[in-house]
Amino acid sequence: MLWHVEDTNLHLMGSIHVLGQTRHGLFPEAEQVYKSAQRVTFEHDMGQPPALTLLENVAGAALSTQVPPAVFASAAREWANLGLDPARLEQLQPWAAAFAIVAIGAAKRGIDQAYGVDKVLWVRTDQDGKERTTLEQPADALTIFALSPTREKVSLLNYATNPPSAFQNDMDVMIKAWHDHDAGTFEHILDHRLRMWPVGFEKLITGRNSAWMPDLVRLASDGIPTLVVVGALHCVGKDGIPTLLEGQGVQVSRVI
């Protein structure tokens, strides 16, 4: 999905963070915009690994003591099925365990962050010598999960493991929607996540969109051909970036 801010040199791409090795790459319209861009702006520095302190429980607070027994049993089962060290599971916060199970399970199916649109473009910008900027620090999104209410962290782990197919199915639906340029499906998924985890996802999507607005307006006004690459969920709905930009008095048109 791709938008253009009218009367500027700014394009906005709704990306997908994970893809299969055989299905990654840009559509022709997006490829042309990328080639013309002098600057590519990402959510955060994708070359900087996350701080482990954001992912882990405080010393002595094992995961099995932080969640209901049934939720931990499901998580431990899926962790074992992936062939992972059970001691490591105990060290993780519930949300971090959930995302680890989903990501590692997806990678075993050939769906990986390494093939995601933003990661591929991050590597390409370095190879192509393009200016590369970011909208936030790498820890910002992770901090939102780390500070989310305990009930939402536990719910996220339960959703990821009971049954384990739920999140995997969501991922498959999002990948298909990205290939189909289907903003409506992304909006449906966002609405579902806001209902399931209202505090965390309100901050993760709506809050960050609003926080990025000053930088996006500046990027649109300085005349430099720029491609902004953010997750597709940031681009849909009444609080999506295209709508918020229009609230700043500019016109935004959908390209694909």
Commentary on this structure:
- The protein is globular and about 55 Å long.
- The protein has one domain.
- The mean pLDDT is 93.
- It has twelve helices and eight strands.
- The chain is an alpha/beta fold and 256 residues long.
- The relative contact order is 0.22.
What's the topology here?
Layout: E1 2-5, E2 10-15, E3 19-20, H1 28-36, E4 39-42, H2 52-55, H3 69-81, H4 86-91, H5 94-108, E5 111-112, H6 117-128, E6 131-134, H7 139-146, H8 150-161, H9 165-179, H10 183-196, H11 198-221, E7 226-231, H12 241-247, E8 252-254
Parallel strand pairs: 2-7, 4-6, 4-7
Antiparallel strand pairs: 1-2, 1-8, 3-5
Helix pairs in contact: 3-8, 5-8, 9-10, 10-11
Features:
256 residues; alpha/beta; six-stranded mixed β-sheet; two-stranded antiparallel sheet; 12 helices; 8 strands; globular
